[in-house]
TrEMBL record:
Keywords of this entry: Membrane, Transmembrane, Transmembrane helix
Pfam families (alphabetical): Beta-barrel_RND_rel, BSH_RND_rel
Coiled-coil segments on the chain, per record: none
Domain RND related beta-barrel: 252-322
InterPro entries with a match to the protein in the record: Beta-barrel_RND-rel, BSH_RND-rel
Protein name listed in UniProt: Membrane fusion protein
UniProt entry tagged with the keyword Membrane: yes
Annotated ranges, domain RND related barrel-sandwich hybrid: 76-247
Transmembrane segments: 23-44
Length: 468
């Protein structure tokens, strides 16, 4: 074998033949890949979309402990002076008197009262236990009604205390005057006047004495313009001037202005429990309602506690135990939505059911439609889907038609998500505070207990898919 042949044989044995590389796919890897893509997609959509929170509707109540400065209306009678002269009050303020009870005296000459003043300056008058009790009652009444923002009360208390003390001394002095008093009374210069009728004595007037539950107005509640005159501060009077006031009945009324929500919540009630905030005393009242100039008022009728507030035209009270119950939902769920209103006269029934339907005018054959009814009142159905603005609805057995969009209405409601997507449901609010509303149960187009609604109602729209 030649040398060249040997080299060719060696070269041939070193030649390497490469085969195409084989790729083997694993089903497990494919499944894992798909799952990763799915998870990444849903994580992305969750992070970039609004998180909708679901609220389960439940039975609940709202305790509406509402405070009011109530207007007090009583049966009040002002008594006027028969003559001109210096006045001496004989009956204590807020004391009950009978017919013919001595209330005040008038000294036309001034001699008797001057003698009484001189006697008081020089004599020591001993007060008994009942006298001290009267003075203590004046102080106690002031302490209960004390308000460091109302200085007028302080001056009224000072005047009342001084007047009460002077009255006790004067009555004691009169009892000891004897012949001089008798002579003055016989001459007509000193006269003692009795109450014309039984009642409760009040030595102040404010111009509201003739106010009734029928004649009050919204201006009657303006406390900034309210003034009261203390009659006991006067030393003398003119004939025909007011000298005291009689409250002739234990029956009285308190009136408060209320909002429409509270009216709706209480309009079926007969009784209401209240608390007087001055002394924390509670009582039950019967209630009635009035409406004046677009405002609503509640009228409370009472047959007790009148004497404790006889000089208060405005009484600070609180409504208590007023638990308004129903379906309780958060206010954040409530939305307003606009709807087309279609007159009920255009309704027809078809498709073998009793659901309201309409005949929609078409260029070809007229079409029977059965849109979702969201609410109805006496005259209209409220619809949204299934019709468009400008559609013509034919009236049965007539050539008349109604153009959709001619009448619009707004409903309050929530989005129900029982089926996995948002469906508007109309609600009727009975009462509402800052956080929650109590809504009426058993409404035809509303919600029921245990329904699921969107907590943030303004973050979804009709038919929004809820992934929660």
């Amino acid at each position: 074998m030649s040398k060249n042949s040997k080299k060719s044989s060696q070269k041939a044995t070193k030649t390497i033949i490469r085969y195409p590389k084989q790729y083997h796919f694993s089903i497990g890897m494919i499944v894992i890949g798909v799952m990763c893509v799915y998870m990444v997609y849903h994580l992305f959509t969750y992070l970039t979309s609004n998180n909708v929170t679901i609220y389960e509707v439940s039975q609940g109540s709202i305790s509406s402990n509402l405070e009011y400065n109530a207007l007090a209306i009583r049966q009040e009678q002002i008594v006027y002076a028969d003559n001109t002269g210096d006045i001496l009050y004989l009956s204590e303020n807020f004391g009950k008197v009978g017919a013919k009870s001595q209330v005040y005296a008038l000294d036309t000459s001034g001699e008797i009262l001057s003698s009484i003043e001189e006697a008081n300056e020089n004599a020591e008058v001993t007060l008994d236990e009942s006298d001290y009790e009267k003075l203590q009652n004046v102080v106690s009444t002031y302490m209960v009604d004390y308000d460091n923002q109302r200085y007028g009360k302080t001056y009224a208390f000072k005047t009342e205390l001084e007047s009460q003390a002077e009255q006790l001394y004067a009555v004691s002095a009169i009892e000891n005057m004897g012949d001089s008093l008798t002579a003055a009374m016989n001459s007509g210069t000193f006269n003692i006047y009795s109450s014309p009728t039984p009642g409760l004595i009040v030595y102040s007037i404010d111009g509201f004495e003739d106010l009734t539950t029928d004649s009050f107005t919204s201006e009657s509640f303006d406390t900034s313009k309210y003034t009261s005159t203390n009659l006991k501060a006067q030393k003398s009077v003119e004939a025909g001037a007011p000298v005291y006031k009689l409250i002739t009945s234990d029956h009285w009324n308190l009136i408060c202005e209320i909002d429409n929500d509270l009216y709706e919540a209480l309009k079926e009630e007969t009784y209401l429990q209240i608390k007087f905030l001055e002394d924390d005393v509670q009582t039950w009242t019967t209630i009635a309602f009035a409406e004046k100039a677009g405002k609503r008022y509640i009228i409370l009728s009472l047959d007790d506690s009148m004497d404790r507030y006889a000089d208060s035209r405005f009484v600070h009270i609180k409504f208590i135990n007023n638990n308004i119950s129903g379906l309780k939902i958060p206010n954040s769920s409530i939305v307003d939505k606009d709807f087309y209103k279609i007159p009920k006269a255009y309704m027809v029934q078809g498709n073998n059911n009793d659901d309201p339907g309409f005949i929609l005018q078409s260029d070809a054959d007229n079409i029977y439609i059965n849109p979702t009814i969201y609410y109805e009142d006496e005259d209209f159905y409220y619809v949204d889907e299934g019709v468009q603005r400008g559609d013509k609805i034919l009236k049965p057995n007539s050539n008349e038609y109604y153009v959709v969009g001619a009448d619009m209405g707004t409903l309050q409601g929530v989005y129900n998500v029982n089926k996995g997507y948002a469906v508007f449901k109309q609600i009727e609010i009975l009462y509402q505070n800052n956080d929650y509303s109590i809504i009426k149960t058993g409404t035809s187009y509303g919600i029921s207990m245990y329904d699921h609604i969107v907590l943030q109602g303004d973050e979804v729209e009709e038919n929004t898919i809820i992934n929660n």
